[in-house]
């Protein structure tokens, strides 16, 4: 089975916890991605900000994206996967935490992101279908 390092998108760029959600949205647009890791001034991963978070937690609640900090949307400790963890561990982590994207960590350093699509491409169809079903149910 392939490892996270083999299937991830390398070079993930963080948005700062003190950056505005508006700046984060611009970064998502510029990078052409649906999620970006949130990093603190200590260079530690604080969470992941998704385009859906911006719509539901900021715009949908009438908050000003220029005044709301990205770090305000980080919830608890970030769910991550190790760079050398295999697809079974990725599947288990995504399923357990109901997430479609995982930051990939090598030691304490962010080295990339693994998305549901990356995992699906590396798995037999049946396992990919099981993951999608698990993430699509409440």
From TrEMBL:
CBS domain location: 8-65, 73-131
Pfam entry (one): CBS
Keyword check for Translocase: no
PROSITE patterns to which the protein is assigned, alphabetical: CBS
Protein name (record): Hypoxic response protein 1
Signal peptide, first to last residue: none
Source domain of life: Bacteria
Keyword vocabulary terms for this entry: CBS domain
SUPFAM superfamilies from the UniProt entry: CBS-domain pair
